[in-house]
Design goal:
The chain contains seven helices and ten strands. The chain has 207 residues and is an alpha/beta fold. It has a single domain, classed as Aldolase class I (TIM Barrel, Alpha-Beta Barrel). It has an eight-stranded parallel β-barrel, surrounded by five helices. The chain has a two-stranded antiparallel ribbon with strand order 9-10. Strand 9 and strand 10 form a beta hairpin. Helix 1 runs parallel beside helix 2, helix 1 packs parallel to helix 7 and helix 6 packs parallel to helix 7. The longest helix has 18 residues. Bound molecules: ligand LGQLAAA5.
Length: 207
């Protein structure tokens, strides 16, 4: 069964929208560079406005360990997504507290071997500029796509089925193509993204 994450949540209404659409996980971006950055208080309120079955993922890029752990705790995150060039020790230290989605660009795929059997680290492949809405070359990625990895990068309702058909990721994640403007969800796009990913699971994956 595919896992579907809707990222860039910045409000209670958008958290409820994504949860009601059937998302498995909501992303809350704490990276200072992001146009969708949220405070811990906003993320906590939005994350707690949905049921406990929906994962609350704190998204970080190039931030110190103390900041990642402190914000995740105060925002009541249930897992952590890590972008950027990071040492294995750093990722291990976060993974001691939270399940980690370790995000790699195609150029960094050598790092995938490090996390192959780690019980708390799941890989996610994303475009070089996270949150830019640019899609990866799925066919080129196919030979090296790590089994069990998630896929992000330019996904939306109109291309998620094709991406799943090519790479059969364990999860899909999107933000840019689900918005009216940065930080504000497009209801129709969120609903169609989740529904299309669910339908594509039935078509592309062994049951
Ligand atoms: O979206 C952002 O602003 C962002 C900033 C810093 C790190 C990650 C960010 N978003 C992540 O980017 C990918 C895919 O985004 P898109 O669908 O291509 O726009 C996703 O993992 C977001 O969590």
């Amino acid at each position: 069964m595919i896992r579907v994450k809707v990222c860039g949540t910045t409000s209670v209404p958008d958290a409820v929208l994504s949860a009601e659409a059937g998302a498995d996980a909501l992303g809350f971006i704490f990276a200072p560079v992001s146009r969708r950055r949220v405070t811990a208080a906003v993320a906590r309120d939005a994350g707690l406005s949905v049921g406990p079955s929906v994962a609350r993922v704190g998204v970080f890029m190039d931030q110190g360990l103390d900041e990642v752990l402190r914000l995740s705790e105060s925002a009541r995150m249930s897992s952590v997504q890590l972008h950027g060039p990071l040492s294995s020790l750093y990722v291990e230290q976060v993974a001691a507290y939270y399940p980690v989605l370790r995000v790699l660009r195609p150029a960094d795929l050598a790092e995938a071997a490090v996390w192959k059997d780690h019980p708390a680290v799941t890989l996610m492949l994303d475009a070089p500029a996270p949150g830019s809405g640019h899609a990866l070359d799925w066919a080129a990625l196919r030979p090296a796509f790590p089994p069990g990895a998630w896929l992000a990068g330019g996904l939306g309702p109109d291309n998620v089925a094709q991406a799943m058909q090519v790479l059969a990721p364990a999860g899909v994640d999107a933000v840019s193509h689900l918005e009216l403007r940065p930080g504000v969800k497009n209801r129709d796009a969120v609903l169609r993204f989740v529904q299309t990913a669910r339908a594509a699971t039935a078509a592309s994956y062994p049951q």
